[in-house]
Amino acid sequence: MNSDDTQMKAVTIPEFGDAGVLRADTVPIPVPGPGQVAIDVAYAGANFAEVLYRRGVVDVPLPFVPGIEVAGYVRAVGEGVEDLWPGRPVAALTIVDSGGYAEVAVTSADLVAPLDGLDIGMGTAAALPSNSTTAFLVLDRVARIAPGESVLVHAAAGGVGSQLGQAARLLGAGRVVGTVGSASKIDTAKGFGYDEVILRDRLADAGRFDIVVDMVGGSTRRASLDRLASMGRLVIMGNASGAQDVGVPANELWFTNRTVSGFNLAAFAAAHPDEAGRALRRAVEAVAKGELRVQVEALPLERVAEAHRRIEAGATTGKLVLDVAAL
């Protein structure tokens, strides 16, 4: 921590642009308001959402401290917060206001999961609030998965893809298939609960599914709709390809008995923090029990630009986390 007890080290986005704009900076230490918790950050997750902030796809005030998830120790609590106290180890979603790429982050107490008594390292804990929480919410809350249903997940070797296959299994899915963009990722994805992993360009041969989860976009979105069975549900939760939006003809949906839904964790957590928090604690419990595996690679926060470049290039498997405590 900075010698000035009102300032801390952080990585900021001072202007929109490529990964080179990310800057080590000194900013004021945030103070928790009513219902909030301040956390001394040990690790922060690195996510595609933060890439979008940096590019200016999401309109955020500059300079901006990104970071949608963290693990660390409670530093202070705001008025009305119970069951959390200074020093308690936690994992937390900081996605509503961001701020995880810093020594201290503040978030709603509803979006915090205690870790004491659980055999979960801080690096692993920082890797699960966004992706693992999303996996349970997408399949259970949005797609409303039923026992025995078939599930197709794109980008199966990535951060959220690595969790969706396993969560589908825990929620009683039947056939679970993942797609990847390159053959080098097939073996990695197979370790995340998938019955089968195929190249995305072979999607037409995959059969039909009750649920398809697409975070890729572009031509994959149209192909995903074609893979839905009668009463099938396509859940859209990203556009990693950066392709132009793909329209879905409404008449086609009612002719074929199909549904298209969207899911955005930031908007959901802002509107339903209590439900997002329950899903986070459910994910933490699953990891602690060994029911959910999180593959983690840690980099020092100083290498945050490298982390962003790898995420943008699709050159990651599992999850990257940033070591903030080592500052």
UniProtKB/TrEMBL annotation:
Which top-level group of life is the source organism from? Answer: Bacteria
Q: Provide this UniProt record's keywords sorted from A to Z.
A: NADP, Oxidoreductase
Limits of the Enoyl reductase (ER) domain: 17-322
Q: Under the GO molecular function aspect, what terms does this record hold?
A: mRNA 3'-UTR AU-rich region binding; NADPH binding; quinone reductase (NADPH) activity; zinc ion binding
Pfam families in the record, alphabetically? ADH_N, ADH_zinc_N_2
> Which InterPro entries does UniProt cross-reference here?
ADH-like_N, ER, GroES-like_sf, NAD(P)-bd_dom_sf, Quin_OxRdtase/zeta-crystal_CS
GO annotation, cellular component aspect:
cytosol
Q: In its keyword annotation, does this UniProt entry include Protein transport?
A: no
> What PANTHER family does this protein's entry cite?
QUINONE OXIDOREDUCTASE PIG3-RELATED (PTHR48106), QUINONE OXIDOREDUCTASE-RELATED (PTHR48106:SF13)
- What is the protein's name according to its record? Alcohol dehydrogenase zinc-binding domain protein
Q: Which organism is it from?
A: Streptomyces violaceusniger (strain Tu 4113)
